[in-house]
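To fix ideas, we reproduce below a protein record of this kind.
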Amino acid sequence: MTQQTEQATKTRVGLVGASGYGGIQLVRLILDHPHLELTYLGGSSTAGQEFGQVYPHMAPWFNQQCEAIEIEAISERCDVVFLAAPNGVALELVPALVERGLRVLDLSADYRFTDLAVYEQWYGKERKDHSTNAKAVYGLPELFREKIANASLVGCPGCYPTASLLAAAPLLKQGLIATESLIIDAKSGVSGAGRVAKQGSLFAEVDGSIGAYGVTQHRHTPEIEQVCSELCGHNLTLQFTPHLIPMTRGILVTLYAQLRDPGLVTEDLNLVYTAFYRQAPFVTILDVGVYPHTKWVTGTNSCYIGLAVDPRTERVIVLAVIDNLLKGQSSQAMQCLNIMMGWPEDLGLPKVAFYP
């Protein structure tokens, strides 16, 4: 096969929101993917700039010009489009793109919710795109792989929900815990706040400090509850508290729940988790007594899970780590695209972290 023929067979990909942290991860992943060609780069604040002006370190490798966001241009030049823009932007683009036959992967919260009243309540935006939203599939491959494979629109999960749901899913699916006891304590690096300057994420504010935020009202709470409710078969309300950690990237989730059967021991649940994720190439269940560190997944699409049963309190404790910008955002979207296209699920995705 000639180089020209090989290039012609590649899937044409567009990216809207190239200037954010999610965008730069996706550019790198697309460039490294053997079946993809980046044919459109769009952004509202970067239109007219070369990508090397937005991210100077990329100039020697990729310096395509960013363009204004135009549905016609995207439709004509792309087969697939990633939307890595702020909440609300996808609402203006997705209905027309799906109607034109494109596969769309939205990294915002706009197409994660089955009940749009919940989205309106937590995000304060009115929704009229009910028919388009009905086509959306929640993009957590380990739980919804079959639905993703047939989807034209994927609402990619948030970073906290990804780690939280991977930690909780086996317990809920197998009915092993009292669901009303579920508590999720989460900690994230500062990159989760995005690239736009905000006082709370300034170096002088976060360095040497840790603090909770969004207590009782973080927007990822209803997203986690939605999927947890689906897994356990009834409406579930949980306690979710996020914290900001003075590091660039990574999420650590610690889950606590009361066991229904006090006779279960750590080894029992370790076997349950290992079986549950036996076909999940990016989820690793650690040996009993080993608990994950965020550094183990930095720069990867991997999730490491460790767990323990406390016989004194009859609770299970589950710890999960991911890279918030990759498994919690961009590389998970690419994982979904691989599934949608019928390619190997792990194609072009990093598994092993640089260490230390």
About this structure: Residues 54 and 108 are 21 Å apart (CA to CA). DSSP finds 13 helices and 13 strands in the chain.
